[in-house]
Amino acid sequence: MRYLPKSPAEREQMLAEIGAQSIADLFAVIPAEYRLERDLDVPRQQAESEIIDFFRAAAHKNATDYVSFLGAGAYRHYRPVIIDSLVQRGEFLTSYTPYQAEITQGTLQAIFEFQTMIAELTGMDVANASMYDGSTGAAEAVMMAVRVTGRHKAVVASSVHPEYREVLATYAKHQGLPSTLVGYDRKTGRVDLGALEEQVTEETSAVLVQSPNFFGVIEDIAAIAKIAHAKGALLIVSIAEAVSLGVVRPPVEADIVSMEAQSFGVALSYGGPFCGVIAAKEQFLRQMPGRLVGQTVDHDGNRGFCLTLSTREQHIRREKATSNICTNQALVALMATIFLTVYGKEGIRELAEHNLAKAAYAAKTLSEQPGAQLLFKGAPRFNEFVLETAEPPAALLKRLLDGKIVGGVELSRWYPELGNATLWCATEVITREQIDAAAKVLAAGLVEA
Fold it and tell me: Are 431 and 361 in contact (CB under 8 A)?
C-alpha cells in the first residue's frame, strides 16, 4: 500500500468516472513502439529492507574516485558543509516557496539578501530571485529586451554556450523573433567585433554575449556595448561561471546580466536543479521576469520584507505576464546565499584567484606536451581553456578515462572548424598531481601518434 496506494476497486471507479475501459486506454495516444508492454526487469516481492540494500549496492557502482576536467557551464567547486545543514531546516525545505509576508519573514529576507549580493557582484541595480537556470535566464533576458525596445530581432554570439542558444531558439520559435549568429575571432576566441558591427541594426532588440564565453575567454564588454548602444539595442551579458566575478570586472556596461549561480555552492546533481538569475539596470525593472522581494518597515517602524514584484501568470493577468516560468529556485538560491555569506568578498576573490592559478598551470602543462597546443592565446581566460591535439579527441578521452580521468569536452559537435579541440576546466578542487597525471597520459598518446 505504501507504493501502490489505490486498490483495484478504486482504480475501476476512477476509470468509470472518466469513461475509460482500462488503464491502457489512457496511453492509447502514445505510439505503440514507445510503450512498454512487459513488466520491469527488477526483483519482485522484496521487503523494504531488501529494496534499500539493493539500491545501496547499486549506488556503490557509481564512480567516485575519478578526477574530472569537465566544465562547459557546470562547475565542480567545493561546497561548505554548512550549506546542506541550513537548507535542510524545516523553515526552508518546503514543497513550495512561501511568500506570505506575515509568516515567512526568514524566507523573504533570504531572497532579499540573495538579490542584493547578486546585484553587487554583477554591477547591476537590481536582481531577481530567480530563474530556472542560466539557459532559461539568457532566453528570458532576450524576451525582456524585446519588451523594452519594441524590436523583434536579436544578435547572438556563437561563443555563447551552444545549449543556451538552443534554449533561446526554442523560446523564439513561436515568438516571431529571428536571431543572427555572429562568429568569433580565431586568434582570440572573442566576438568578431567587425562582424558584430555589420549585424547590429536599428531593428536589433538585443545583443547576447557570454563572458567568460564558452571557450573560457573574457570578452571586451565595453567595446561590444558601444556597438550595441550605437544602434539602440540592449546588451545582454550571460555568465555561466559565477565564480569568475571574484576577479573579473563586472559587466557594468551591460543593460541586462543573465547568470547561472550553480558555482555558488550548488551541487552538480547530474545537471540540476540549478539557479538562474537576471540582473538589470533600474529603468528596466518593470519588464523583469520572475519575482523580487523588497525591504520596508511595518506600522511600528520595524524592518520587514515582502514580495514587491511578481509579474507571472499566477499573480497578474496573463497578457501582462513577463514570463511563463511559474516557480523560482528559492531553495537553490538559498544555497548560493549561504555560500556567498560564508566566503565573503575577500573569500570569493581568493577562490577566483585559486581557479585562475589552477587553470593557468593546467593550460601550460598540457599544451607543452608534444603535438598539443593552446588555442585563443590572444585574450585573457578564467578557469577554462581550449586545447588542440594531434590525437583525435575520442581516442584521447578514452585513454584518459581508462586512467580514471575525465578529460575535456570535445568541441567538434558544435564547432567543427576547431577539429581536434577540447575544452578543459580546472577549478580549485583539481590538484597539481591530477593535472600532471593527465599530462602524462596525454603525452603518451601523442608520442605514439
Answer: no
Region of residue 64 (left: phi > 0; alpha: psi -120 to 50; beta: else)? alpha
What is the residue-wise DSSP string for 337-371? HHHHHHHHHHHHHHHHHHHHHHHHHHHHHHHTSTT
Average confidence score pLDDT of the chain: 91
Q: Where are the alpha helices (DSSP H) in 275-407?
A: 330-367, 393-402
Upstream peptide bond of 212 is cis (omega within 30 degrees of 0)? yes
Indicate the SS3 state at residue 294. strand
pLDDT tens string 263-312: 999 999 988 899 999 999 999 998 888 788 999 998 899 999 988 876 65
SS3 210: strand
Alpha-carbon distance of 202 to 125, in angstroms, equals 26
Q: How far is the C-alpha of 332 from the C-alpha of 261, rounded, in Å?
A: 9
Backbone angles phi, psi at 112, to 5 degrees: -60, -45
The contacts of residue 318 (CB under 8 Å, 6+ apart) are none
Contact between residue 282 and residue 126 where contact means Cβ atoms under 8 Å apart: yes
Query: Can you give the pLDDT at residue 446?
Result: 59
> Given pLDDT bands bounded at 50, 70 and 90, which one contains residue 321?
low
Give the rounded distance of the alpha carbon of 267 from its chain centre.
12
Average pLDDT over residues 141-169: 96
* Separation of alpha carbons 126 and 124, rounded Å: 6
Q: Residue 185 above 70 pLDDT?
A: yes
pTM of structure: 0.87
Give the CA-trace dihedral at 13, 18, 23, 25, to 10 degrees: 150
Alpha helices in 123-266 (DSSP H): 134-149, 162-173, 193-199, 221-230
- CA distance linking residue 350 with residue 336, whole number of Å: 17
- The grid cell for 398 is 578514452
101 Cβ neighbours under 8 A, 6+ residues apart: 108, 304, 305, 306, 307
- In the chain the domains, ranked by start, together with CATH numbers, are 67-77+345-448 (3.90.1150.10), 82-340 (3.40.640.10)
Query: What integer is the mean pLDDT of 5-27?
Result: 90
| 3-state SS class at 125 | coil
Residue 440 three-state SS? helix
DSSP H or E stretch at residue 374: strand 372-374
